[in-house]
Design goal:
The chain is built from three helices and no strands. It is mainly α. It has a domain of about 35 residues. The longest helix is centred in the middle third of the chain and has 35 residues. The protein is rod-shaped and about 70 Å long.
Length: about 70
Amino acid sequence: MKKHFSDIVEDVKQLDADEKLELRSLLEKYLIEERRKEIRRHYDASRQEEADLTFTDSVADLRESLSE
């Protein structure tokens, strides 16, 4: 059963100081890991976009690609 945010906040209030510090440490680690995953997703998406790019010295080819 999923708890409501307000219930979790109330539970945290009941923890002693050491438990709150441990919880803070865990939350910071979880947030760092989520951010790393987000950065990785952006990196993968940009690498895919880069792979789809084509380069040419031909003006005619450039004009044709712009008209598409």
